Amino acid sequence: MAADIDFEELSRRLNDPALLILNVLKKEAYDEAHIPGSVHLPVDELRAGIGLIAPDRRREIVVYCGGPT
Amino acid sequence: MQYTRVREYPGGIREWKERLGPLLSAPAAAPARPSGATCSPDERLRSLPAALICRLSDLTFEALLGAWLGVVLGSALLYFALDLAGAAGLREANLPVAADLAGFGTAIYFSFMTATSVGFGEVTPVGLARVIAIAESVAALLLFGCLVSKLVSRRQESLTEEIHRIAFENRLGRVLMNLNLVRSELETISAAAAADATDGEQRLSRLESAATILMTELRAIHDLLYRPQKLPEETILESILSSVAVSLRQLGSVVESQPAVRTRSAAFEVTLGAIGRVASEICGECVPREYAPHLKAQMDRVQGLARGLTAAA
């Protein structure tokens, strides 16, 4: 994992189709509230699912979860 | 995992909420919960009575009926137990009810009369039996209320299902209609470009509009395939996919024959990229649901065309 992204940049690029935003929380959390445009891929399915959701390995991806742990 | 451009948003949903970033909740459109479960999480957290009513309304009709009968029979057993113990229980014509089979029948009879709030009054409770009678009346009435409201809501639920189905079919119809529009627009643009008839600016703006519509519908289709709430009919899905394939092919040939359009319009370039990316995620093995082989083949074709589109970059 490379650098982090901050709130300003992420909120600016919300509608950028080049950016794939991944929510790795559980389904209930995603359903309750998620960043618009983010795709739900729970962390335990990450390995299996990422190839399907983003077959292009050079795709720009941002991952987020609940918050600082 | 060889993904080279992955970053983390460390603040997570917590910071996002704190800083009032926009949020979405899962679409309430489709009843994702099984029919009958109507309790929302915040209702459950309210006061104890509210939480109790909520939990009760989550039970099925059969379960509620069973619970009601259980209360009645349980209370009857308690009344009879009191009579057996010789303690103050039920009285009939001012005499304590006997602790035999007839007495048991009386207990059951009294229990039903209390639960249905009929209470003729020839059998009366005394002492502890009064406490049981109070509890039984309240419980039975509560359950009965839930039972009746469940009957009513069943009808409502089936109507809501019907509305969702109609709305879904409308949406699919709109997708098909817009895809046809895109196709005819692209055809006209190609023909005009070949004849060099109309002016380039107008062609370009028509191209931009057509591309934007295509992107919108592609997003809807992508959503349909990746977050399936309802399964579209196979024939409809087939029409949609083949329409998408034709549009992508036409778009590709327009771009190929006039590469200048990409440099002249930044908006078109961005839209083209978005179309390519969304469409390239539509393939037979990519989508979470298992579809028939001919549908999967069509999805693969869409992906192939999309890849060709972005490869022309």
Strand content of chain B: under 5%
Report how far apart the termini of chain B are. Answer: 26 Å
Taking pLDDT < 50 over at least 5 consecutive residues as the criterion, the unreliable ranges of chain A are: none
Portion in helices of chain B: over 70%
Strand content of chain A: 15-25%
Summed up, the helix count of chain B is 11
Segments of chain B where pLDDT lies below 50 for 5+ residues?
28-37
Give an account of the 3D structure.
The complex is a heterodimer of chains A (69) and B (313). By secondary structure, chain A is of the alpha/beta class. Chain A is built from 3 helices and 3 strands, in the order αβαβαβ. A 3-stranded parallel beta sheet of chain A has the order 2-1-3, with no helix packed on it. In chain A, helix 2 links the parallel strand 1 and strand 2. The longest helix of chain A has 8 residues. Chain A is globular. The mean pLDDT of chain A is 81. With 313 residues, chain B is mainly α. Chain B has a 3-stranded antiparallel beta sheet with strand order 3-2-4. In chain B, strand 2 and strand 3 form a beta hairpin. In chain B, helix 10 runs antiparallel to helix 11. The longest helix of chain B has 68 residues. About 3% of the residues of chain B have low confidence. At the A-B interface, helix 1, helix 2, helix 3 and strand 3 of A face strand 1, helix 1 and helix 10 of B. Strand 3 of chain A pairs parallel with strand 1 of chain B, so a sheet runs across the interface.
Give a quick set of tags describing it.
heterodimer, A: 69 residues, alpha/beta, 3 helices, 3 strands, 29% helix, 17% strand, B: 313 residues, mainly alpha, 11 helices
Provide a short characterization of the protein structure.
The complex is a heterodimer of chains A (69) and B (313). Chain A has helices at residues 7-12, 27-32, 46-53; strands at residues 19-23, 39-40, 60-64. With 69 residues, chain A is α/β, with parallel strands linked by helices.
